[in-house]
Amino acid sequence: MDDVSEGEGVSEGVGEERFGEWVAVRREPEGHVAELVLDRPKAMNAVSTEMARNIGDACAALAADRRVRAVVLSSTHERAFCVGADLKERNSFSDADLSRQRPYARAAYTGVLELPMPTIAAVHGFALGGGFELALSCDLIVADPTAVVGLPEVSVGVIPGGGGTQLLPRRVGAARAAELVFTARRVEAGEAREMGLVDHLAARGEDRAEALELARRIAANSPVGLRAAKRALRTGWGMNLRAGLEVEDAAWRSVAFSGDRAEGVAAFNEKRAPRWPGE
């Protein structure tokens, strides 16, 4: 939800799959860490209808890939993670156009939110409106000191529509979320870290590298265990303790008799690195 500027993207590389013009998925050689790359630099990654479709398609492919144990959501633009909805595109929309766009937008944000493996957003520069909602849809957020985050939608006559009104209170509490949404104010990196809007503050320009390193540490663990743990954490949101414990028990039962559990116990006792079967 900001002005756009010119910039250079990245060319397709080894291990990279394009989903339309503006979104790519890069897989590391062993295939366990994937990077979902926002690559629309001339618009500071503003999310147009087509880009939303690209994000949704990329998330569907990642969700189906059993090799992937962790995903990093990153940006190719030097000064922005994502500035939110493409308001230049929307300026020409009729009400019918906006209604037709809505399913693609929802699929993009829901696609990130519902990825079954742990996800980490690597944020630098502007992460505003829908851009910040993409980051909030991830399990963890790594930011560098240039990061500026916020949900300014009420300043242009709408509300956060990519999950912001639900995800932000779960991060920082209802009152603080209400203040940020109602004032539409932008929060710089240091304050964002203090408030819990981001989880890790990296050195300048190191948000992507730190997020990838964190993803690799996560991906060293059981793929079956990681997906079940995320399912328990996410499903238990908003439930009372008793209901949440039932969710946890169901997730535990889904992994307790798995090949990964047997391999993990054997590797521990044999003092070696596990070779996860992922079953």
TrEMBL record:
EC class: lyase
SUPFAM superfamilies reported for this sequence: ClpP/crotonase
Lineage: Bacteria, Bacillati, Actinomycetota, Actinomycetes, Kitasatosporales
InterPro entries referenced in this protein's UniProt entry, alphabetically: ClpP/crotonase-like_dom_sf (IPR029045), Enoyl-CoA_hyd/isom_CS (IPR018376), Enoyl-CoA_hydra/iso (IPR001753), Enoyl-CoA_hydra_C (IPR014748)
Catalytic activity: a (3S)-3-hydroxyacyl-CoA = a (2E)-enoyl-CoA + H2O; a 4-saturated-(3S)-3-hydroxyacyl-CoA = a (3E)-enoyl-CoA + H2O
Biological source species: Streptomyces pini
Record's protein name: enoyl-CoA hydratase
A Pfam cross-reference name: ECH_1
Keyword Lipid metabolism: yes
UniProt entry keywords in alphabetical sequence: Lipid metabolism, Lyase
PANTHER family: (7AS)-7A-METHYL-1,5-DIOXO-2,3,5,6,7,7A-HEXAHYDRO-1H-INDENE-CARBOXYL-COA HYDROLASE, ENOYL-COA HYDRATASE-RELATED
UniProt similarity note: Belongs to the enoyl-CoA hydratase/isomerase family.
UniProt-listed Enzyme Commission number(s): 4.2.1.17
